[in-house]
Write a structure and sequence with these properties.
transmembrane, about 80% helix, transmembrane helix, Small_drug/metabolite_transptr, 4 helices, Small_multidrug_res, mainly alpha
Length: about 110
């Protein structure tokens, strides 16, 4: 159950990051409110996951899902630049996440 909460928390991090970008520095009401709501959900589920998962594992997976997810959302939703070097960087993060999961005893 902790892993499911952690993955959902990471996905919510992607949503709040995207909404934060859309809020234009918190000058637009609805994206700003959405950002706060998804931050609360993401942190809440991260806290639940940390009840049983080690801090280093949980936090690394959470930030990794958020980082790679925001990178992909930027490309797909916002039309941000794709380059071979950026793709390699994202692949390295994913590789690190896989190693972190394999190293976890939970």
């Amino acid at each position: 159950m902790a892993w499911i909460c952690l993955v959902i928390a990471g996905l919510l991090e992607v949503v709040w990051a995207l909404l934060m970008k859309q809020s234009a520095g918190f000058t637009r009401l609805w994206p700003s409110l959405g950002t706060v709501m998804f931050i609360i959900g993401s942190f809440g589920l991260l806290a639940v996951a940390m009840r049983t998962l080690p801090l280093g594992t949980a936090y690394t997976i959470w930030t990794g899902i958020g980082a790679v997810g925001a990178f992909l959302a930027g490309i797909v939703v916002l039309g941000e630049q794709v380059s071979p070097m950026r793709l390699v960087a994202a692949a390295l993060i994913v590789g690190g996440l896989i190693l972190m999961k394999l190293a976890s005893q939970h």
